[in-house]
Amino acid sequence: MSQARIKRPDVSVRDKKLDVYNTQLKKIDGEIAVLRKQIDQNQISDVTQNERKKLQEQTREIIKTQADLKSRRNAIHERVKQLDANIKRKTGEINEKLGRKAKYSTTAEVKQRINEIEEAISSGDLTLVDEKRLVKEMQALNKLNKDLVAVEPVKKSIENDKQQIASLKEELSQLNPREVSDKFEQTQEKLNSLQSKTQGVYDKRQTLFNKRTALYKKRDEIYAQIKKIRADFDGEFKAYKQKLEKDRLKREEDQKLSKLLEEKDAKLGKLQEKLAHAKLPAFSSEIGTIENALFVLDPTYEKPQRKLFDDDKDSKPAQPVKKVDDADLVPINKKDDISNTEPSKSKKLKKKQQGQQANGGSVNTNHDFTLEPTLIAALAELEVTVPISQDQVSTTVDQLKEKLESYTSKQDEQTEKNIEQVEKQISQLETDYSEKEKQVKEALEAKRAKEQEEQKENAQ
């Protein structure tokens, strides 16, 4: 399909529809302008505004005063309540000291009674029983007199508390909020009266606001229609461009075969690179980790010297190795992992050990045995026992040697499996792309045959 046969959307048709709505918009904007002018004309006078503002400020001040009065009254009530509680507590202490059934409440009364008893005893007219009873009463009175003297300060304190309560109640009577309440009501009446006078202006402005809101809504509806017309035209124009794009894509179908071949070469190159990696000995990483651990834990262990690549007569020439991005790699500092000598007790060594523990350094499992965190992580990943003392090192070494023997015995077999797997993928890739190439060639041949027939028909 050529561009000449694709019909372009007519802009003039869209513009005629938009002109109708633009005319309506212009009319509505004029009406809104008139309403805005009327709203500006119907304003409350500055004098009225200032008066209302002044009354509102007075109302706020009155409310603040009422809050202060309430706070002060509450404070006084709370103080009176505390003093009442103190009086009750002190009265209870006196009753507990003197007894609730004490006949005499002052020292003067007690002394008077004691004098009476002494006179009665000294008269000699009493019987022995009466004299003993009076002597016993006099002893009780002497004890009561001592108790009365002891509680005298408490009684004075109670009298002082009662005077404070009387003073606070007098102060409370002077904090009468009635005057403030009356002033508040007067201010509210003035505000209500002012509101009544200006209500007509508010009502008229509200009517104008409602009319303006209705015009805004109508204008939004017209804007929605305009937006829809533009969106419909944009959709048609987008469809037109898509048809042009489709036509262009069809002209580019002949490039599919070359792109398919490029895709095949790219994938084949990746598989060849994967094959080169597969030919490397299997379990190299695990074996290397185990050998490094044995080298650290077993002083008698020696790393075997091995070639990275085995000699192979049928092997392909070496290809450049893909550069590895080492931005995320962390360098490893090789250190002796085990210390068998007792460390010095100097302050410098102790400070160093504390710094290592605080900063996530070496893990010191006891006073003379230390493992690097990297070695601990390697042993944990290999799923072998992590020794926490020198006595457990031999167990870990035996487990490492057992795993090393297991990986070494299966290395050649696993390497062959890896190579076979990649070679199967390469073979399958060759088969798949051979079929795709065949399909593309057939499709291109059919397209060319159809185009030739169309050309013959157009020529006739």
TrEMBL record:
Basic and acidic residues biased stretches: 306-326, 433-460
Disordered: annotated segments: 306-368, 428-460
Cellular component GO terms, alphabetical: endoplasmic reticulum; nuclear outer membrane-endoplasmic reticulum membrane network; ribonucleoprotein complex
* Gene source species: Zygosaccharomyces rouxii (strain ATCC 2623 / CBS 732 / NBRC 1130 / NCYC 568 / NRRL Y-229)
- Example of a GO biological process term: intracellular mRNA localization
Tell me the protein's name.
ZYRO0F10824p
Q: Which InterPro entries match?
A: Bfr1
Molecular function as annotated in GO:
mRNA binding
